[in-house]
Write a structure and sequence with these properties.
474 residues; mainly alpha; 0% strand
């Protein structure tokens, strides 16, 4: 009997200890969960991750705990495991739109834009008034280059939440990329009204104003962006561009130097600073910076084009041709680069390749005065006066106030024997620039061919006088 009682008491104890650990685990799990939320709010993401994991191991297996652990993982940069947790949350609660939204954002950070769009769209299907999901999907569409869809989603986000500065800023930048720069400015204005400390919006508006050639406005906005974020390397770079275009080369150089200091691996900074050095007459420093840009980004076509032009200026046309050819290989046909390479071919004596480059450049940009001039000159040199006249006639139609263009036309007309037309073109050149002695001299030659020795003598005398005055001034 005693033995039986002992056994019954032992069984009772066993039952007690079987039940208690579960209760204790439940309490521990809640404590872990609450501590995890507190740690997350305090920004202690490693600690919150540890507590969420302990809460799960202790028995909490809800969509909420996996969702929250996913947030901690994302804060710690572990996007892949965050996606796993968001997926688990969705499996436990297929109606959890926030889990779809956040998993979409995790995919977005991985560059998986289509997968992100799919998740954002599911979140919006579950909650059509989810403004954040529209905003996020707008970013994903922008990431894959679909600007129209991106702008549409930012617009829908703003319809639901008209006080969101991010949606205004991002829609503005998408409009800039679409080429609708003027339309973007009101968006940046509104974004800044809603958040006066929004350095990115100041930067974006500054960059947009620079595209509109409002250099001073751009400098003002970019300066504000730098005041708000003194380590804003891109703002220094862009302000350098604005100063450069404003012909303030010293200030531009200061900004490029600061940008390079903040980010020594930004190829565009070196490329632009190199062109600035070249503009200041320091060709070697310019070539050095362009070479640095190419070393950092071997696919930067404009750096090859810039270095090619600098090499040409230093009389190294062979190397320049190589750089221009590389730029064309990387970027495809460019009228400007073809014209540069064509000039080098001319200087190395390869007129056939030069004419081919200039002709291709002209096909790409038939209203480029520089290309028209070169084509006119090469055709004139080869004796094809008809083509030369056609090009120069087009040139004066594009630049009706260009005295030099009329003079060139008058010279070729004279060489073709069209003396009356030549005197008209040269007289127009003199009308536009009465101080150009060359126009008088060339008109004098034409008058001689016409047998008008009196007019010829008068023009030669005028040309000599202007030349004398020019030499005395110099």
């Amino acid at each position: 009997m005693k033995a039986f009682k002992k056994f019954a008491f032992f069984v009772g104890l066993m039952l007690v200890f079987v039940i208690l650990p579960g209760e204790i685990r439940s309490q521990y799990a809640e404590d872990f969960y609450e501590n995890a939320k507190l740690a997350y709010r305090a920004g202690e993401y490693s600690k919150s991750l540890d507590y969420f994991t302990k809460a799960i191991k202790a028995g909490i297996s809800t969509s909420e705990v996996y969702f929250r652990r996913g947030l901690s993982l994302e804060k710690l940069g572990d996007t892949a495991h965050a996606i796993d947790d968001y997926t688990k949350a969705i499996q436990l609660d297929p109606q959890m739109e926030t889990a779809y939204n956040n998993r979409g954002s995790a995919y977005y950070r991985q560059g998986s834009f289509d997968q992100a769009i799919k998740d954002y769209s599911k979140a919006l299907q579950l909650n059509p008034s989810y403004s954040l999901a529209y905003y996020n999907r707008g970013n994903a569409y922008y990431g894959k280059g679909d600007l129209d869809q991106s702008i549409g989603d930012f617009t829908r986000s703003l319809e639901l939440d008209p006080t969101d500065p991010d949606s205004y800023n991002n829609r503005g930048w998408a409009l800039v990329q679409k080429g609708q720069v003027s339309k973007a400015i009101p968006d940046f204005n509104r974004s800044i009204e809603l958040n006066s400390d929004y350095s990115l919006a100041y930067y974006n508006r500054g960059a947009a104003l620079l595209k509109l050639d409002d250099k001073n406005g751009a400098i003002s906005d970019l300066t504000k962006a730098i005041e708000l974020n003194p380590k804003y390397e891109l703002a220094f770079f862009q302000r350098g561009n604005a100063h450069f275009r404003n012909k303030d080369l010293d200030k531009a150089l200061e900004d490029y130097n600061q940008a390079a200091k903040l980010n020594p691996n930004h190829p565009d900074v070196y490329n632009n600073r190199g062109w600035l050095f070249f503009s200041k007459g320091d060709i070697n420093q310019g070539i050095g910076d362009a070479s640095k840009a190419i070393a950092l980004n071997p696919d930067l076509a404009r750096a090859y084009a810039n270095r090619g032009w600098m090499l040409r200026s230093s009389k190294d046309c062979i190397k320049a041709i190589g750089d221009f050819s590389k730029a064309l290989e990387l970027e495809g046909p460019s009228a400007t680069v073809l014209a540069y390479r064509g000039r080098c071919y001319l200087e190395t004596g390869d007129k056939k390749k030069a004419v081919s480059d200039f002709q291709e450049a002209y096909n790409l940009d038939p209203n480029n005065p520089e290309i028209i001039v070169v084509l006119a000159e090469t055709n004139q040199e080869s004796g094809d006066y008809d083509s030369a006249i056609n090009f120069l006639t087009k040139l004066v139609s594009i630049k009706p106030d260009d005295a030099l263009a009329y003079m060139k036309l008058g010279v070729v007309l004279g060489k073709q024997g069209r003396f009356f037309d030549a005197t008209q073109a040269l007289s127009k050149s003199i009308e536009l620039d009465p101080k150009n002695g060359d126009s008088y001299f060339n008109r004098g030659i034409v008058y001689e061919f016409l047998g008008d020795t009196f007019s010829a003598s008068a023009d030669f005398s005028k040309a000599k006088k202007l030349s004398s005055e020019k030499n005395s001034l110099s």
